Amino acid sequence: MSMDQAIVMGASALGAGISMFGCFGAGLGQGFATGKAVEAVARQPEAKSAITTTLMIGCAFAETTCLYGFLVAIFLTFTNPFTNALVG
User: Fold this and answer.
1) What is the tally of helices (H) and strands (E) in the chain?
2) What are the DSSP calls for 17-32, one per residue?
3) Could you tell me which CATH class the domain 27-83 is placed in?
4) Which pick of 13, 15, 35, 68 has the fewest CB atoms within 10 Å?
């Protein structure tokens, strides 16, 4: 393995690790939002449907962010386009 390949593979592993912080942040955000939604329903039970709808839309956006970070990590780990450019 040449030095260029080692640098690209190391940088790819670092980038994959950093992209997983998006999943960590999405999990924290979903937990925080769910806790606040439970508090809101406890204060105003009549607004339960509106609160639940807003919560589900927000959690869907957060989960999408998590999935994008996960896909970037998978692409950088297994199907790295940069190492193919160095080999060929």
Assistant:
1) 4, 0
2) HHHTHHHHHHHHHHHH
3) mainly alpha
4) 35
Q: Where are the beta strands (DSSP E) in the chain?
A: none
What amino acid is encoded at 82 in this protein? F
User: Residue 39 and residue 77: Cα distance in Å, rounded?
Assistant: 41
Q: Residue 41 corresponds to which tokens in the numbers above? A: 């329903």
Whole-number CA gyration radius for the chain: 20
| pLDDT tens digits, 39-56 | 999 999 999 999 999 999
Residue whose structure tokens are 């940088």: 11
What whole-number distance in Å separates Cα of residue 25 and Cα of residue 43? 27
CA max distance for the chain: 65
